[in-house]
Amino acid sequence: MSKLARREEISGYLFISPWLIGFFIFTAGAVVVSLGLSFTKYEIVSPPIYIGAKNYIKAFTNDPLFWHSLLKVTLTYAVFSVPLQLVTGLVVALLMNQKLPGIGIFRTLYYLPSVVPMVAMAMLWILMLDPQYGLINYFLSFIGIKGPAWLYDTKWALSAFIIMRVWIVGSSMLMYLAGLQGIPTSFYEAADIDGANIWQKFWNITIPIISPIILLTLIMSIIASFQVFTLSYVMTEGGPGNATLFYVLLLYQNAFINFKMGYASALAWILFIIILGLTILILKSSASWVHYEGKTR
Amino acid sequence: MRTREKSLTLSWLATKGSRRITWKIIAFTLLTAGGVLFIVPFIWMVSASLKTRPQIFQFPVQWIPNPIDWTNYPEGLAFMGFLNCFRNSCIVTFGSVAGQLLSSAMVAYGFARLRFRGRGILFVILLATMMLPYPVTMIPKFMIFRSLGWIDTFAPLIVPTFFGAGLSGAFYIFLLRQFFMTIPLELDDAAKIDGCSYWGIFWRIILPQTRAALGAIAIFSFMWNWMDFLGPLIYLNSLDNFTISLGLNQLVGYRYTQWGWMMAASVVAITPPVILFFVSQKYFIRGIVVTGVKG
After folding, report:
1. Cα separation of B166 and A158, whole Å?
2. How far is CA A121 from the centre of its chain?
3. Given CB 3.0 to 4.6 Å as the disulfide criterion, which of A214, A281, B82, B204 pairs with B77?
C-alpha cells in the first residue's frame, strides 16, 4: 500500500473514530451486556447472578402482566392504530395533492401537532379527554352523543390513545405527499385516454407508485407503536386497571421502579425479537405488493 | 359530422373540467374541516390558559376569554420552577446539538470521502443500528453512567452525543454522508495538491459547502433533544436538575384542579419548537421527506 493510501486510511479511521468508540460502548457493548443480563437476576444493589433462562420462562408462564401488556394493550393498539395512521396520512396527502390554493398553510397546519413535545401533548390531551369538561365530549354532545369517561374507563382508555395518535400523523403525510407529487401527470393522461375512472387510476397508478413509501411508513409505524412510552407514562401510568400498560412502560417499571434489571433486559430482548421478526416478515411479503420503478417482474 | 364530433369532444372536456373543479372544492372543504380539527386543540389550550377556573369550566366554551386572566402564567410557571427547568433544558439541548453536529459531520466525512478497509461493512452496521429498539440498550447505558457516578447530572444526556450515540445519532451521520457525497471530488483533490490536510479539507471546504444540511441537522437535533422525556426521566432525579419535560410532568398531578396552570405551562413549553418549526419549515419538511426516518 502506498504511503498516501495508508495516510488516507488512517485519517478515515480517525474521522469515524467518535462513532466507532460510541458504537462499541453504547451500542454493540450495550447489546451484549443486555443479552447477558437477561439471563441473570440483577437488582442493582448486588452483582448479577446467573439464573439461566428463568427470566424468559417467568415472562411467558408466570407474569400475567407480560401477556396482558403485549397482547391486550400493545398489539391491540398496533392493530388499530397502524392502519388508521396509514389511511389518514394517505387521505390527507391525496386531498392536498389536488393543486389547491393555500397548500403551504394546510401542510403547516397538519404537521404542527408533530412538533409538540410529548409531555405537553399528554397534558393537553388529558384535559381534552376529560369526561366532564373536555373538548372531545363537548363536541360529541353537539351530535347528541354522551362521550365515555375515556382515560378513566378501562374499556375506552386504549381507544383514546388510538385516536390521539392520528393527531401526529404529520410526517407520514409529508412523505406520501412527496411521493404523490413525484408521479408524472402523463401517466394519468394516458389512463384518461384509455377511459380509466378515478378508482382505476388510484389502484393501478397511484398505489403502485407510492407503494415503497407505504412500506416504509408501515414498518416505521409498527416499530413506533411497539415502543409507546411517554404518553402512557404521563397520562395514565398504565391505568385504569392496566388498560394502557404498554409494553415499554411495563419494561420501564420493572427496570427503574422495581429495579429488576435482569428481568427487564429479558423483556427488552423479547421486544427486540418481535420487532425484528415483524420487520423481516413485512419486508419479505413486500416483494409481492411493493412496486419498484425500473424493475420488471 | 366533423363539427358534431368537435362539439362532443368539447362537451366531454367541459364536463370533465367541471367535474375536476367540483372535486377540488370537495377536497378543499374536507382539508379545511380536517385542518380545523387539527388546530382546535391549540386554540382551546391558549384560550384556557388565559381563563380563571370558573371560566374554564363554563359551557358553552368561551373561545375568546372575557376578561383575559394572565395569572395562570406566573403561577403555573413558578410552580414548575420554569426558569430553572428552562436553563437546564438549554444546557442539555445546546450541549447535545453541539455534540451531534461535530460528531456526525466528522464521521459522515470519513464515510463519504475517505477510503479505508471495512468502510462498506461499517456503514451497513451504522444503518442497522437505526433499527435497534432503545429499550435494548437502555439498561446497560444506565449501568455505565451509574458506575461513572453521572446519575443526576447532565453528562449521560450530553456525552454520548459526541460519540454519535445521542438521539437518532446514526440518522444524522447517514443524512450528512448523503449530502457530502454530492460535493465534487475535484475540490478535495485540488486542496490536496495545495498541501491541505484531510482535516483542512473537512473544515475549510466540505463544511462551508454544506451549511444548509448542517443547519437542518441542528434543527432536528434541537427539536428531539428539547422534546426528550425518557432520557431526563431516567437520569435526572433532583428538582434542581429537571428539564422542561420533567417540570411539566410535575403538573400532571394537578389534573383535577389547576387546568389553567397546565395549559399555561404547556403553551410556554410548546412555543420554542413551534417557533423553530415556523422559521425553518422549508428545511424541516424537506429533511423529513428525504429521509422519512423520524415518525
Report:
1. 31
2. 17
3. B82
Q: What is the pLDDT of residue B292?
A: 52
- Interface-testing mutation among A8, A19, A152, A253, with chain B (most B C-beta atoms within 10 A): A19
Type of residue at A136? I
Identify any residues that bridge with B67 across adjacent strands, giving them in sequence order.
none
B45 → chain A, closest CA residue:
A124
Distance between alpha carbon A263 and the CA centroid of its chain, in Å?
24
Q: How far is A268 from chain B (nearest CA, A)?
A: 5
- The CATH code of the domain at A63-289 is 1.10.3720.10
Nine-digit cell at B121?
Answer: 461493512
| ipTM for the whole predicted complex goes beyond 0.90 | no
Helices (H) and strands (E) in chain B, counts: 16, 0
Residue B208: name the closest of B178, B187, B186, B193 by CA.
B187
Domain ranges of chain A: 63-289
Q: Which of A295, A142, A7, A79 is nearest to B201 (CA)?
A: A7
pLDDT (tens digit per residue) in B165-222: 888 888 899 888 988 888 888 888 888 888 888 999 999 888 988 888 888 889 889 9
Contact flag B133-A272 (C-beta cutoff 8 Å): yes
Residues of A in contact with B30 (CB under 8 A): 95
Give A-chain residues touching B48 at CB under 8 angstroms. 127
Question: If contacts are CB pairs under 8 Å, which of residues 240-269 in chain A contact chain B?
Answer: 248, 251, 255-256, 261, 264-265, 267-269
Say yes or no for a CB contact (<8 Å) between A19 and B27. no
Q: Which residue of B has its CA nearest to A33?
A: B140
* Residue A50 φ then ψ, to 5°: -70, 125
The most distant pair of C-alpha atoms in chain A lies apart, rounded to whole Å, by 81
Chain segment B227-283, per-residue pLDDT in tens = 899 999 999 999 999 999 999 998 888 877 788 888 999 999 999 989 988 888 877
Low-confidence ranges of chain A (pLDDT < 70): 1, 293-297
Question: What is residue B57's three-state secondary structure?
Answer: coil
Kindly state the cell numbers that stand for B85: 427547568
Residues B213 and B175 sit within 8 Å (Cβ to Cβ): yes
Instruction: Compute φ and ψ for A40, nearest 5 degrees.
Output: -130, 165
CA distance linking residue B281 with residue A77, whole number of Å? 31
First-to-final CA distance of chain A: 44
Distance CA B160, CA A256 (A): 21
The Cα B233–Cα A252 span in angstroms is: 11
Q: Is B24 exposed, middle or buried (0-12, 13-18, 19+ CB in 10 A)?
A: middle
Total CB pairs under 8 A between chain A and B: 258
The domain over range B72-291 is classified in CATH as 3.40.50.1980? no
Q: Taking the domains of chain B in order of start, what are their residue ranges?
A: 2-56, 72-291
Q: What is the DSSP letter of B228?
A: -
